[in-house]
Amino acid sequence: MRRTRQGGEPLRLTGETDRVYPATRAACVVDDTAGGRRLVVDKAGSGTTVVWNPWAAKARAMADLGDEEWLRMLCIETANAADDRVRLAPGARHEMRATIRVLPR
After folding, report:
1. Closest Cα partner for 81 from 31, 35, 46?
2. Which of 16, 23, 67, 79 has the most CB atoms at less than 10 Å from its CB?
3. Nearest-CA neighbor of 19 among 67, 82, 65?
4. What angle do CA 82, 84, 88 make, to 5 degrees?
5. For the segment 3-62, what is each residue's pLDDT rounded down to a tens digit?
6. Is residue 75's pLDDT more than 80?
């Protein structure tokens, strides 16, 4: 996995996006200016955040996503990937949770 650092500026999607943010335990906040709302994805048991959007070409190839739905779609996933992976012994458990809140702007 190629690693790059993103500065402190907000992520703005300008094309196909598939980013993995390791060592992210804080909530992810999406400012939805068009919808006049703020989405907050809180998580527990997750050390990684994945953000993706297929953009136009890949959206057309996805059976479960309409050709223009990518314009209103942003996937934020909680995960434990790469250095944040969780190794479990046989019979052990790990819980991971995501809670999505919608707030006015």
Report:
1. 46
2. 79
3. 82
4. 105
5. 777 878 889 999 999 999 999 999 999 999 989 999 999 999 999 999 999 999 999 999
6. yes
40: part of which helix (H) or strand (E)? strand 37-44
CA–CA gap between residue 105 and residue 102 (Å, rounded): 9
Residue 4's identity, in one-letter code, is: T
With left for phi above 0 and alpha for psi between -120 and 50, is residue 60 left, alpha or beta? alpha
pTM: 0.87
Are the CB atoms for 37 and 105 separated by under 8 Å? yes
With bands split at pLDDT 50, 70 and 90, how would you rate the model's confidence at 83?
very high
